[in-house]
């Protein structure tokens, strides 16, 4: 456990304004990559709750496209990947039950 003094000595308000956890950094990276700063909090929440591999696949798909609204394309691909994951998990569960 660190003392409050040591934590405050390391704190830099110019660079550490919003970031105190790793998932927050990745969420901000998502919003910057997709040029969608308005929904920064949504991307931070997704970085906290959704598996990183799914987010990276959706980000790669959106970045490689020529779409004007990369944020919307990212969300569409993310939904598609999450549905595919649920389908695979439920299929595996049925196989294990037999």
Q: Could you walk me through the main structural features you see in this protein, from its secondary elements to its overall organization?
A:
The protein has 98 residues and is mainly α. The protein has 5 helices and no strands. The protein has one domain. The longest helix has 28 residues, at 70-97. The chain is flat, with a radius of gyration of 18 Å.
Question: Summarize this, please?
Answer:
This protein has one domain (4-97). It contains five helices and no strands. It has helices spanning 4-10, 22-33, 40-49, 52-64, 70-97.
List strands and helices in order, with pairings.
Blueprint: H1 4-10, H2 22-33, H3 40-49, H4 52-64, H5 70-97
Helix pairs in contact: 2-3, 4-5
Name the structural class. Answer: mainly alpha
E-strand count: 0
**Amount of beta strand:** under 5%
**Overall tally of structural domains:** 1
Task: Give the mean pLDDT.
Answer: 86
Helix content: over 70%
Radius of gyration: 18 Å
Tell the overall outline.
flat
How do the SSEs run, as a string of H and E?
HHHHH
The largest β sheet comes out as:
none
Terminus-to-terminus distance: 50 Å
Number of helices: 5
Give the low-pLDDT segments: none
Keywords summarizing the entry:
mainly alpha; 5 helices; 98 residues
């Amino acid at each position: 456990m660190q003392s409050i003094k040591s934590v405050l000595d390391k704190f830099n308000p110019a660079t550490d304004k919003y970031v105190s956890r790793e998932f927050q950094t990745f969420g901000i990276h998502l919003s910057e990559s997709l040029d969608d700063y308005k929904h920064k909090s949504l991307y931070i929440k997704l970085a906290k709750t959704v598996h990183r591999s799914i987010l990276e696949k959706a980000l790669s798909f959106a970045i490689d496209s020529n779409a004007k609204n990369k944020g919307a394309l990212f969300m569409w691909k993310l939904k598609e990947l999450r549905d595919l994951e649920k389908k695979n998990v439920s299929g595996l569960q049925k196989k294990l039950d037999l």
